[in-house]
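## Example pair
The file below holds two records. Each record gives the amino-acid sequence first, followed by its C-alpha cell line.
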Amino acid sequence: MIALYDRTAQTLNASADSILPTLARFVFAATLMFYFWNSGLTKFDGSPFTPGVGGYAQIFPKAMEAVAYDISQMSIFHWAVVVAGTLAEFILPFLIVIGLFTRFAAFGMIGFVIVQSLTDLYGHGGIEHAETLGAWFDGLPTGTILDQRAFWVLLLVTLVLKGAGPLSVDRLLSRNR
C-alpha cells in the first residue's frame, strides 16, 4: 500500500510543474481577469490616461470627499497613481492569461491586491464591517478581504513560484533562447 502511495505521489509530483501553473492561469482567467478589467473600465473617461471621478473616488476616497469630488483639485501625483493603477488592472491580468512575464505580472498583482485591500479597508471603511473584513478560522469563507483575497494571493503565489507552465508565451520565448 505504501509503495502504491509513493508511486502515485511521484507521478503527481512530476506532473505538478505543468498542471499547477496552467490550471492557476485558467482559474485566474475564468474568475478574476474580467473582474479587474471591469474595475479598470470604471476608472477612466475616454482613455486610461484621462481618469474620471470614479477612478479617483475608488483609489483616493477620502481625498475625493475632501474636495467634494472635484477632480481638478487633485494633484499630478493622484493622476499618476490612478493612471498606473488603471493600466495595471488591464496589463497585468492580460500578461498572466497569455503567460508572458508571468512571474513578474503575478508578483505585481499580489502588490495590487494588497493595495486594493488596504484601500477597501481603510479608505472605504471596510475595516468597520466584520462581514467585509472577514476572519480566518471562523468557519465562514465569505469575508471579502481576509477570506476571498487570500485565495487570490495563493493562486498568484503559485504563478510566482512555478511560472506560467507549458502553454505560455514564456515557454515559447525560453525555447527560442
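Second record, same layout:
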Amino acid sequence: MVRMTRPEPAPVRGYTATKDQLLTRLRRVEGQVRGIEKMVEEDRYCIDVLTQIAAIQAALDKVALGLLDGHARHCMREGAAEGRADEMATEMMAAVGRLMKRG
C-alpha cells in the first residue's frame, strides 16, 4: 500500500503578504541589469552607465528596506514570543550592517 503524504506548507515569512510585489521589483531590477549589460556592449558613455547602476542600487535598497520592515514586524515578533528577541535583534542588526557596507 502506497501512503500519500501532504507536502509541507511554505513557511510564512515577513514578506509573504507582499511576495508578488517583491518579485515584480526584483524582475524589474533584473531587466535594468540586462540594460546596463547592453549599454556596455554598445560602448555607451561611462556616466550614463554609472547613473543606471545608481538607479539599480536604489531599487535594491528599497527591496532591502521592505524586507527589513517585514522581518521587524513579523519574524521578530515571532522570535520575541519564543523568547529569542535579543538573538533576533542581533541577527537583524548584522544584516543591516552588511547592507550598509559598500565599496
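Notes on the second record: Residues 16 and 70 are 9 Å apart (CA to CA). Residues 46-81 form the longest helix (36 residues).
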